Every structure is written in structure tokens, then in C-alpha cells.
Amino acid sequence: MICTSIQNKEYQNILEVLKTEEMAEIRLDRCALEEEEIQALFQDTDVPLVATCRLDEEPQAPELLELAIEAGAKYVDLEMEAPAAVGRRIREACRSYGTVLIRSYHNYTETPQKEVLESILERGRMFGGEVVKIVTTAHSKADIDTVMSLYSNAAPGTLIAFCMGDKGRESRLEALKRGAPFTYACVSEEEAAAPGQWTSAEMRKAVYGNWRPVKAGPLTMPASKSFAQRAIVAAALAGGTSRLAGYSECGDNESAIALVRSLGATVVRDGNTLVITGIGASPQSLDIEAVHAGESGFLTRFVIPILASVAKNQVLVTGEKTLLNRPLSDAHDIMAACGVRLYPEVNNPVTSGLPESSSSNGVVSDHRKSDCYLPLRVAGPIIPGRADVSGKGGSQLISGLLAALPLCDGKSMLYVSDPKSIPYLFITMDVLGKFGIRIGSEMEGGEDFLETQDWSLCTGINFKIKGGQRYQAASFAIEADWSGAAPFLAAGAIFGEVEVEGLDTGSLQADISIMDILMQACASMSQLDQPIGPIRVARAPLSAFDADLNNCPDLFPVVSVLAAFCPGETHLRGVERLRHKETDRAAAIEEMLTKMGVPVTIEEDLMTITGMGLTQRILSGKLLKGGSYSSHADHRMAMALSLASLGADSPVTIDDTACVAKSFPTFYELFEKL
Prior knowledge:
Shape: elongated
Number of helices: 22
Radius of gyration: 29 Å
CATH architecture of the largest domain: Alpha-beta prism
């Protein structure tokens, strides 16, 4: 990125300059700013700012730097010559407030030998510099080559090295090409901070050429289908009429509506509100032969336990498209723990070649796990009591048990070992609670879990469920969807600036984790009013990160594209959760990134992606490779490919984009606004 150095200006002048710059250095030693203005500048400005204050020019430099750090400076630049006590003081402040510390060296007369510069680089690291800045004066091409050679031993994004002087002018641009997180420019030639400095306008033209950054918003996200599907089914089970505001249409949501209508519920659209009159469900009260789940894996798993509870007889569950090829992981074992048997149909295209041990009712009774695909029959009743089940295969069937067991006559104790997608279980409990269903829960884990409450460290959950409960009608608004917002938020972080509205930052949705991931990647983020004010994400120098996506696997495709633009190695855990989505998403992501020229490896549950910053990709001719790509009929892959297309060297053609209708029919309508 291009960091414009601002000096000799007052507060209002600085604000005017920031309107046109993507990043800026504020010379606190040369700008006439009151303490309140410094605080406001670094606290309220979304543009990533570097706070700089040379000790030899400003006696109060440590205090001013601390003030900027506390107010929210993205970076603080402290020269290596600073006294040790000052260095410790600023380093501690940076750690406390999450500010990146730059330790800088400037030589205004010459370029020392390579060995000297290498020792300076090492000293900068020892002094706590997450980024080390080395700037010398060039008198020859050899001087420039010496400085540029430092990049060969520096991790991506950790070194800013270039030369001053007319001979060193091009090295400022070369620094970006070599992997510097940013380089420095000036507002105008008259305001150059050092000889050979480019103006920001010149630098933008040299770096970006005809490329234009993304700028969009505010964009309104659709309803969360995680909330919508649960609420639609719960409303159908209730006695009376429920009103669900904020509804938006998508394939999976419409499948839920069609399914509950087949149960006997009535559903009417009133603008963006669903009016649902339920069936007042009770155990073995429903006379139904079959339901259709569309292409929704969640809906399938969610209703299987419910059907086992409320239906009088066996119920056939059917589906379509990719759902027919997706195994219902651990379904036999989980349902058997509650007394329910699952019988795959003979005409299942996946299991039709398996031996039949019974044909009297037209079903296969071989209960091997590999048999469990749609269509299948659910044979209840569900039996309350103590059940121990594994959560390794995901949370969806367990969510169904939480919805079904309260209807039973007796109380239940459901223990889930090795739980995955824990946030989705709490979404289920939250939605059920709105309809009068009460469930107690206790999470287990070691000392690390008890101390951090990190869900990835949870080893088990005990659910305590009172029997004889009945669903009661409810009226509330469905939350906006964090998973649908993720591609747009990532687009802002990588390519410019995007503002999204309507999202609840207090949400239980698992995919709210995109906020944490973007912060780990060092994107610039702000929110006007919490918890549901517009969220703005903008470009900043990104960095590689580590993320465990076991609890939010739907984010994996978009996060993998984000990682491709983060310098260094990003490590993503949760690969095994991707194997049985609409496609084998792990293989699809690996195929996509490899074809686009992004190094990626998969080892068991870990995906490692080697990324490169956008400006470095542009200058080195290493933008992602365009061409023809397959979404594998997977809505999440189609969205990820669309995001990647913004950073490709030629158009990206996707074979199937209609699949986004499964969760986000208006995705491309909004995407065109980027």
C-alpha cells in the first residue's frame, strides 16, 4: 500500500488530505496538533495511520506516541536510536493496545555495507519491531542492490527497506514489489519528507495503473437461513400463529416452507414477514407419509428427529441434486441412541448396489454407515432418557434432537462428546427458546477451556431437557446473515472499502467469526453504532493468520481467498468438516487456488496457503489467474470464485452461478455494486 507522509499541517487540513489517501503517516513532531486533536484523529479515522514522532525534534515524543497508541494508531514508528527505557515503554503500550511497532533506521548520508544493514535488521527485531524500516541514501545502483537484498532474509510484510535520494527514487516502488507492507509518498513535491520521495498521486499511478479499488455500500444482507429454517420449523410445531419478520427468500428457506406445509402448517407471506399457523405438535400426533427437504442438508438432519417424535408411522424423507450424494454422517448411530431406526430406500442412487436383507417394505436394512443417504425412512418413536452421541460429524442432527426431545413425555439427558459447530447448537437453543422451549446445558473441557471459554477446546456438552413441553407461537425478526456478508467484508479488506448494514455484532451465528478473522488479518474495521450499525471494512496492510474453522466451515472458501492476499503462510484448520458439503469443498478450494497460482497444501485437517499482498501481486505480475472455473454446484464456492475474480489478471468464468440461490439469490445483484 501507499502511505502518505503528512507534516506541517493542522488538524482540519489533515482530515482533508485523508479523504483521498489509502494510508498515512502523521508526523506528530511536525504537525501542530493539540492532545485532543491527536486523540480524535487516531480514534475516529478509518484510514490506517502510522504515528511518528522523532525524539530529536520533539522532547515529548514518548508521551505523544503513547497518546496515539491509546487512541487507536494502527502503527507507531520508533527510531532504533531511542533510549532503551523509551523503547520498553512504547513496546509495552503497543502490546496493550494491539498497535504494530515499527523500529526504524535512517541514514541520510550513505548506504552502509550489507553486513551492517543485516545487523541493523536483526537489532530492529530484537528491539520488538514487528516491522523493521531501513532507509539509506543511495549514491549508486550498488547501494540500491544492497538495500534490496535485505528482502531475501525477511518474512513477508516485516520489512520496509528503500533508498533516499534521486538515485534511490525507484527503490521506493521496488520495495512494494519485494514484499514491503507499504511504501512512503508525500502529499506534494513541496512537502516531500526526504529526497526522491514520490507524490502519492504519482505513486498511485505507478502502482495501480488502470486498476480501481472497490468502494460500495451500504449493502443490506439477506436473512440468516440458519435462523430462518429453525424458526420456520419451530413455528410450524407451535400452536397458534407466529410472525417472522425480516424474511428473505432463498432455496433452502423455501424448502423449509414447503416441508412445513406438508406437515399441515399454513404459511403466508406478508411483505418480508412470514405468517405461520402451526400444527400444535405432540408425540405421535401426525399422520404423514413423506416430506421433501430440497437440497438442504441442515433441513434434512433437523427434521429427522422431529419426525421420529411427532409422526405416527414411518416417514420417507427425500431430497434433490447434490443432497442425494451427501452422506448423513453418524446418523444411524446418533438416532439409534434415541431408539430411532433409519432405512435407506432401495432406489437410492448411491446405495442401490448394496445387498438387500429385507424387501418386504421396499427398504434396505443393511445399517452400515455408508448406506445413510437420501431418500430414507425414519422409524420412530423417539425414546426419551439418557443418550450419549458423538458430535464429530457436526451439529445438525443434534439440533434436531434438541428440537424433538422436549416434546417427549419423559425428561432426557443428551451428552454430546467432541462437539463441532457449537455456535449452531446455541442458535438452535436461542430459536427454540423464543417458542417457549427450555433446555439446560453444561459445557466440559480442561483448564484451558475453563480459562478461555474457547469453544474449540470444549470436549463435551450435557443437555438437560424437560419432557412434556409444547411449542408456543412467537413473533420476532430474523437476523441478517453473516455467512452471506463474508464475501463482501473480505472484498473490502482486500480490494478497497465496503460497508454492510443490518448485521448484529452480538449474534450467535458461527460465521460472525469473519470479524475475528479479518482483525487477525489486520484489516481496517469500524462500526458506527453497536450492535447493529453499519460495519465498514477497508484495506490495510494485511498479514497471514491462523484460524480454526471447525465451528464455521461455511467461511472456508471465502477465507481461503482472503489468505491468498495475506503475505506469508496462513494456516486454516477444519478441512475434514468440508468433505461432505455440497461438494468436497477441501478439494474444490485446493483446485481453485492451485489453478489461480496460489500455493496451497493440505495435511489431514490443516490447509496452508501462501499468500502475497495485492500491491505486490500487481507490481510483480502475480495477480490470480483468470479463466474458466467450476463452482461444483456449491453456492459457497461460487461466492469465493467471484471474490477471487476481483484480483485476477483476466476474467473469471464460473460454470454455475445459479447455485447461489440456495442461500443468497440476490448475491450477484449486490456483487455488481462492488
